[in-house]
Amino acid sequence: ALIQKRTSIRGWPSGTAADSEDCVKFAQANGIRTMVTKFPLDKAQEAYDHRSSARFRAVIVP
Fold first, then answer.
1. I want to staple 47 with a disulfide (CB 3.0 to 4.6 A). Which of 10, 16, 33, 39 is the partner?
2. pLDDT tops 90 at residue 40
3. Model pTM?
4. Does residue 10 belong to any structural domain of this protein?
5. Which residues contact 14 (CB under 8 A, 6 or more apart)?
């Protein structure tokens, strides 16, 4: 459905690699865990639709 509609999913850079590394270290040191909604690959359209209502991150997994 994404290809047929010529739809794309985009991201944006949010800091440097060092910033990301510091963030991960901080999370590990303080017991902070991510909250992720996982969607199987065949539910990619549902994940795409869910992105605007998701309070947390949605990830498509193979």
1. 39
2. yes
3. 0.41
4. no
5. none
The verdict on residue 28 lying in a domain is: no
Question: At residue 54, what are phi and psi to the nearest 5 degrees?
Answer: -75, 130
Q: How many domains does the chain have?
A: 1
Q: What are the start-end ranges of the H helices in the chain?
A: 17-29, 44-50
- The amino acid occupying position 58 is A
The residue segments making up the domain with residue 39 are 34-62
Task: Report the distance separating Cα 7 and Cα 10, nearest Å.
Answer: 10
Tokens matching residue 9: 């999913």
- According to DSSP, the residues that pair with 37 across neighbouring strands are 58
Say how far apart CA 4 and CA 26 lie, in whole Å.
Answer: 41
CA 62, distance to chain mean position in Å, is 14
